[in-house]
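Marked as duplicate of an earlier ticket. Keeping the data here for the record.
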Amino acid sequence: MRVIDLTQPFSMHTPGWVGYPSPKISYLQRHHTHGIVSQFLETPLHVSTHLDAEMHIKSGGADIASIPLSVLVGEGVIVDLSDVVSDWSLIRPEHLTRKVKIREGDILIYHTGWHRFYNGCAKEDEVRYFCMHPGGGRELAEWLVSMKIRWWAFDTGSADHPMNTSIRYKRPDLAREYRRRTGRDPEEEFPEQDLFVMHHVPFGAGIVHVENAGGDIERVLNQRCLIGCFPWRFVGGEASLCRLVAFLDV
């Protein structure tokens, strides 16, 4: 069996999502003083590779600890979209289904190539990574539900198109740039009632996701394999840092 790590590293340099603070890491004990090392961590949950629980977006939704391992580990596919997407592309179901056979109930991971722009990676560009990545809209959100996808992951900061998130208000300069480049008005293209639709629709059906996939994802593109996500057993947690793994030759 080969184990492929699909997880981004975590450190004090890891950026939170747009508007979120960075992690704070300090030492409580050091070898030269205490003979042992212990550290203190203060961090948003939406950093590095992490799993969102239903309660992140759905009032009364399940927490991280409520997701059984039987859901978090299973068969799925890792789809390469890097040759069909670019800045601000809208991902549609056919982009996925043209590449590999996706079965009802699969775990789904899609690769856009945006992991290369993540902090510390070869082409680091935090603005492009978080604010200009490809993302889905209502069509993709409803397709995920119709396919009864178990959960899904992606190598971007959000499953939603950036202009269908609060980024279009937090970064009006980028909203203007989007209009200039595409000729489309994000306010018309993505109605305000559909904001974060890739969260609201699937999470409402119990289908959650892992953000910021990365690691060695390019080694397992367009393959069917066993996939596992391993978060904290976090009672009351709306999200959790996790290890995302593909198991080959099982």
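See parent ticket for discussion. The longest strand covers residues 239-248.
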